[in-house]
Design a protein that fits this description.
Keywords: Membrane, Transmembrane, Transmembrane helix. By secondary structure, this protein is mainly alpha-helical. It contains seven helices and two strands, in the order αββαααααα. The protein has a two-stranded antiparallel ribbon with strand order 1-2.
Amino acid sequence: MSWENITSAFTRYSKISSYTPSTSPMTWDPKGKQLQWETYSKSVKQKSILLWHFNYILGVHIAYTSSIVYFVVQQLYGYGPKREFMNVVILLIRAILNWIGSVMHIMIILYGREAVHGWNGVRAVEAILTSSMVSTKPKKYPLKQALSKSAKSFNGQKLFLLTIVIMLSIYPVLLIISDMALSLDGVSTVVQDISTSYKLPTPLLILLHIMRFYIMSCNSIQICSTFLFVVLSFISLLLMGKNIFMIFIKEARGLKQIVAESRGQFYYKAKFSNSQIMYFNEELGKWAL
């Protein structure tokens, strides 16, 4: 998996993320081709970063987590109507997704800056080692290399990464539509119980569903966007680690070959010097006789 494919996937991710009003403090820098940490006090996008944290705190940590707890208590103690088994399974899957989003948000707040610096450091080491290997490696058979590159015009790795980016970008839209149409989310249970208990009029019921739509949008878009960024960062880190270890292995093999050659030269010189000494002793013996 080449570095150009990773860069292309990150660039596509940054273009898709630019359409959302909120911005994560961990972003991709297309010009420098590295990760970037946006500090709230020094960033130009202060409102976008603040909105990102607000959506996570309100939509993921508070609203949806509370609705899941309410649903679990309702099903365990029989306060409301029993749901079908598949509905319960889907709600539990959504609860796991919400928990993953909460953990990612907390980890970014605590360790996001260090993760960005570490990733950029590994990238710098990999770039230095790769450039040194390219500069010292002789170019052989340029025509053959050009033919092999033209034969490999289909880039399956790039297609795989772009498919991940597109799928995780479309998934929130499908999730929001299915939740709003089929009421498969935990917030719908709270809205239905409030509307039936207090017999709310239609305008207030519409307002509750608008709030539910906002919560589901924040939940789905924020979590999928963060998860996509984490996946791309993890894959690229594995790629850089593989390249660094491959360079080290090649250097070790070259060093081993040099040591073996030097040992052979030393053995040849020692043997030659021994033969010279024996010849000198023979000549000295003849002269003595």
